[in-house]
Amino acid sequence: MIIFKQAKPLTEHLQKEQKAAKKIGLVPTMGALHKGHLSLIKSSKLSNDITVCSIFVNPTQFNNSEDFKHYPITIEKDIEQLIIAGCDVLFLPGVEEVYPPGYQKKHYNLGSIENSLEGFYRPGHFQGVCQVVDRLLQIINPDNLYMGQKDFQQCMVIKKLLELTRKDKIIRLNISPTIRENDGLAMSSRNLRLNDTEKILATSIYKELTAIKNNFHLKPLHSLIQMAKDHLQEKNFAVDYVEIANMQDLNPAKNSEEPSVALIAASIGNVRLIDNLILN
Ligand code: AMP
C-alpha cells in the first residue's frame, strides 16, 4: 500500500493510472477503522483496479468541539488493517492539504435534507461533509465512491452533492449495508469511547429499531416512535430523535405504505450514536 500525505503527488499518481484505463474506487473515512469500513474496501476492490482509502478527521463537519477533540485516532492499527484488506492507496492528509491557503469555502444548496434530523441536531454538519468530500473528489477523481448505509442521511446528501458538482463525470455512489456486532450494535468508531456496560446498553438502539420494524404494519407510527423514545429515555439515553421517515426525502412518513426508514440518534453520556433500519 502506498501512503500519500500530500494531495498533489497523489493526484499525479492517480492521473497516470487513469491514463492506463485503471478504475479507481474511493472509501472516505475518519479512521479508527472497523469491519464496517473494511466492508467498503472489500466492495471497492471487487469493482475497481485501485482502491483509495482516505483517513481524515474533518474539523469542518464537527459542530461540537468536544466530539472533535475526543474522536478516536488509531492510525497504526488502521494502516495494518488496510494492508491486510488489500487497500492500494491510503491518503492521510493534514488539514492544510485538504484546505490549503486560499481555499474558498463553498456553500452547497442541498435543499431540505440539510436541515432535518442530523442536520437539525448538528448545524453545519452536512456543509462540512460536502466540503471534505468535494475536495477528496477533486484530489482523487474516482469512478466509484463507497459509503455506508449506517449514515443514511449522509448518503442522501452525497448523492445530492454529486448531482450538484459532478455534471461532466459520472461518479457512482455505492452504498453498503451496515455491519453490526453479533448483538446488533452498529459498528462505529465512536463505540471505542463506550465502556463495557455502555456498550451493552448501546444495543438498545438496534433493539428499538427492530421493534419498530416488527410492528410497522401493526401499530400507528406515532405510537411506535413514542414507545422507542420512552424505552431509551428509561435507560438514560439522551434522545435527539426517533423518526420514521420517507426514504426519498426523509420527511416523516405518513403511513406504513410509504417506503420508510426508522432512524435514531441518542447519546450515552457524551457519546452520540446513530443507527437506522429500512422498514419495507
Ligand atoms: P466514518 O469513518 O465514521 O466517517 O465512516 C466512513 C464510512 O464508513 C462512511 O461511509 C460510513 O457510513 C461507513 N461506515 C461507518 N460505520 C459503518 C458500519 N457499521 N457498516 C458499514 N459502513 C459503515
Please provide a brief summary of the model.
The protein is of the alpha/beta class and 280 residues long.
How does this structure look, described?
With 280 residues, the protein is an alpha/beta fold. Helices cover 41% and strands 19% of the residues. The protein contains 10 helices and 9 strands. It has helices spanning 7-19, 35-47, 65-69, 75-85, 95-98, 118-121, 125-140, 152-165, 196-215, 221-234, and strands spanning 2-4, 24-29, 50-55, 89-91, 144-148, 172-176, 238-246, 260-268, 271-278. The strands form 2 sheets. A 6-stranded parallel β-sheet has the order 1-4-3-2-5-6, sandwiched between helices. It is globular. The N and C termini lie far apart (40 Å). Adenosine monophosphate is lined by residues 29-30, 36-37, 39-40, 147-148, 150-151, 176, 178-179, 186-189.
Topology record:
Elements: E1 2-4, H1 7-19, E2 24-29, H2 35-47, E3 50-55, H3 65-69, H4 75-85, E4 89-91, H5 95-98, H6 118-121, H7 125-140, E5 144-148, H8 152-165, E6 172-176, H9 196-215, H10 221-234, E7 238-246, E8 260-268, E9 271-278
Parallel strand pairs: 1-4, 2-3, 2-5, 3-4, 5-6
Antiparallel strand pairs: 7-8, 8-9
The structure holds adenosine monophosphate.
Residues 29-30, 36-37, 39-40, 147-148, 150-151, 176, 178-179, 186-189 line the site of adenosine monophosphate.
Return residue spans where pLDDT drops below 50 for at least 5 consecutive residues: none
Give the count of helical stretches.
10
Element-by-element helix/strand order: EHEHEHHEHHHEHEHHEEE
* pLDDT averaged over residues: 97
Strand content: 15-25%
Number of strands: 9
Rg for CA atoms: 19 Å
Bound molecules: adenosine monophosphate
Report the end-to-end length measured between terminal Cα atoms. 40 Å
Give the assembly state of these chains: single chain
State the helicity in percent bands. Answer: 40-55%
Structural class: alpha/beta
Biggest sheet, spatial arrangement of strands = 1-4-3-2-5-6
- From the spread of the alpha carbons, the general shape counts as globular
Largest sheet: 6 strands, parallel
